[in-house]
Amino acid sequence: MNTADPDRFSSFPVRLPRGVRSAWIALGYAGAIVVHAGLDQSVIASGGDVASEEWSQWRGPSRDGTAPSGDWPNTLGESALRSEWSVPLAEGYASPVLADDKVFSVETRDKTEEVVRAFDRRDGSPLWEYVVPGAMKVPFYAAKNGSWARSTPATDGSHLYVLSMVDVLTCLDAQTGKPVWQVDFKERVGERVPAFGGVSSPLIDGDALFIQGGFAVTQVDRKSSESRWRVLEDRGGVFGGAFSSPIIATLAGKSQLVAQTRSTLAGIDRESGEVLWSTPVKAFRGMNILTPAVAGNRVFTATYGGGSFCFEVSRGPEGFSVEPVWQREQVEGYMSSPVIIDGYIYHHGRDKRLHCLSLETGETRWVTDEKFGDYWSMVANGSRVLALDEDGTLRLFEASPESFRLLDERPISDEPTWAHLAVSQGQLFVRGLRSMTAYRWGD
Predict the structure, then answer these.
(1) Between the chain's N and C termini, which has fewer beta carbons within 10 Å?
(2) CB burial class (10 A; 0-12, 13-18, 19+) of residue 323?
């Protein structure tokens, strides 16, 4: 189709509370959004970069759950961590992301549409909102976790990239909420919406955007919205659509995209899309959910029904290869992505316990006696780790291979907190099921 033809489209809603006016974009919407581009490329041509320490994407600056610099106190008490503001939202699990003076959120409203919103990070005042029509229901056996927005956006400070549950990728002007382009993967690749919806979080890389959408790993041109390459197509149906999100890592001397599909872990050349290496990853019904963690030339992941896996990537005269280093079938993963500190993996498992594993050998150094909630989002700062439980409890522990050293814990939300913590410039953002709250470390 001619994605630049304005006659192909009819209007869709954009709300700008501060009076910013934008051109209504022609978009033919009859139960599904179609692909369009060429809307206002001048606002994306120059690009933009947020500070390298800003929490601008899934799991933070490096997508590994590592916080920007700054000391954290020994306690989570009111004097050390105080609430600044809170705003009500509709349901959603997408994590907040930050750029300059703004914090962005995504929610599913009235079971009919997804709403992207921008707030002033100083006081929570609303700046703009943008609506993507369409919603979906996940399969009945996953319904307990809701059919709400899950994919965390990514921003470069000038633009915001959002994947909706109905597998629509949208680029917005971060200052105004004005749409720049939109891609409906259903239209582009001729497939249905994944059974569990669009879940993977976009990754910005120069003038490119990586996304696990449309039943494959795809590179999209950030300026034109065109797909540059598409690899690792999956099976579709209930086994289609990624749960995990890609990262960029240097393995065997080469910077590459590391992506995990429902069945496969792989390294991909960022420019060409060539699959450099790949290995199957065992999981029950393709439940490869967490984001892989990289340290040196090793990649760690864990799956529901498969266990924990450590692979090593090497490079020889014939190219790249990947070999299993160790596997622990009894230490299964679920949804929590790990953090790696000083050669040890801190992994919240399917058994709801926190495990400390040696990256070198896979040995379990310790496992907590206590069972926690189904999900933890963890943020490491040096040897200290903040962990937000899905039951609304925030914990602070000292990472040590000797024992679990809990420093403090505090109930911080009366709502489920499945979204990942966002931490930056002395602030913590907690996304409850129907709210977002900003906290600040004390003086």
Answers:
(1) C
(2) exposed
